[in-house]
From TrEMBL:
A GO cellular component annotation in the UniProt record: cytoplasm
Protein name (Swiss-Prot/TrEMBL): Geranylgeranylglyceryl phosphate synthase
Homology family: Belongs to the GGGP/HepGP synthase family. Group II subfamily.
Domain of life, per lineage: Bacteria
EC number: 2.5.1.41
Protein role: Prenyltransferase that catalyzes the transfer of the geranylgeranyl moiety of geranylgeranyl diphosphate (GGPP) to the C3 hydroxyl of sn-glycerol-1-phosphate (G1P).
Positions that bind Mg(2+): D22, S51
Residues reported to bind sn-glycerol 1-phosphate: Y171, L172, D173, A174, G175, S176, G177, G202, G203, G224, N225
Any one GO BP annotation for this protein: glycerophospholipid biosynthetic process
EC supergroup of this enzyme: transferase
Catalytic activity: sn-glycerol 1-phosphate + (2E,6E,10E)-geranylgeranyl diphosphate = sn-3-O-(geranylgeranyl)glycerol 1-phosphate + diphosphate
Gene Ontology terms for molecular function: magnesium ion binding; phosphoglycerol geranylgeranyltransferase activity
Cofactor list: Mg(2+)
Amino acid sequence: MNVTELHKMKEAGQKGLVVLIDPDKCGDGYLDELLTIAAVNKPTFFFVGGSLMTTQRLNETVQFLKKNTDVPVILFPGSGNQIDENADAILLLSLISGRNPELLIGEHVKAAPALKASGLGIWSTGYILVDGGAPTTASYISGSQPVPRNKPEIAAVTAMAAEMIGMQCIYLDAGSGAQNEVSPKMINSVSKSVDLPIIVGGGMKTRDQLEAAWNAGATLVVVGNAIEKEPALLESLSESGSQL
Ligand SMILES: CC(C)=CCC/C(C)=C/CC/C(C)=C/CC/C(C)=C/COP(=O)(O)OP(=O)(O)O
Ligand SMILES: O=P(O)(O)OC[C@@H](O)CO
Ligand SMILES: [Mg+2]
């Protein structure tokens, strides 16, 4: 699936809900339960990945999803080896809030041949970690400082640079299980500074938070932990897709 699908969504003013699936946390029938609920309350996409993957379940998770749902499956890789050609696309993340060359370009160089051969849709993504109130796995593993929560202008100029370099979307991430989600003020500031679709995630738990993010300019809002803890939450978050 090409990134133009995401650009079309933004141009049409459509808003999407994404469920993040961490293959490490898919035990005990979790995916069966999730897909039963998702059959009625369809998310726009499934993202699959983790900043730290301690099991080898990526391929079986992608395979299971491709077999049992028609919701597109987009890889959200914590490293260059989280590639599976059975998915529909991959967020080719470049960690632009950090200054670690491996996560800006190094991993990408190593993964380039496999990515090209995979036939996956490539969504070049400027990935911005934002302080969500506590250190997250992503910031610890990447050894990078997140953008301070109350500095929307830093996120905005970072996104502007990414757009001029040629990246195709921006991901503002307060990190897995963040105490504070990315503020609508920061989303709005980024939205006014670039024409790119904006993906927002980290610490989202309520429909009100999703709406605040969409209204501030997000095209996609990602929910991981809250649905992992309580899959039925997908029903109230999606409101049967009325807004999607
Ligand atoms: C070259 C390729 C294919 C990929 C680049 C990979 C890069 C540079 C990633 C950026 C840095 C990074 C660690 C991103 C993490 C993204 C991610 C999958 C976050 C979601 O996972 P969490 O839910 O935070 O993970 P845990 O549950 O493991 O805490
Ligand atoms: O798990 P949560 O807190 O919903 O975060 C989702 C994702 O944006 C984390 O990278
Ligand atoms: Mg996680």
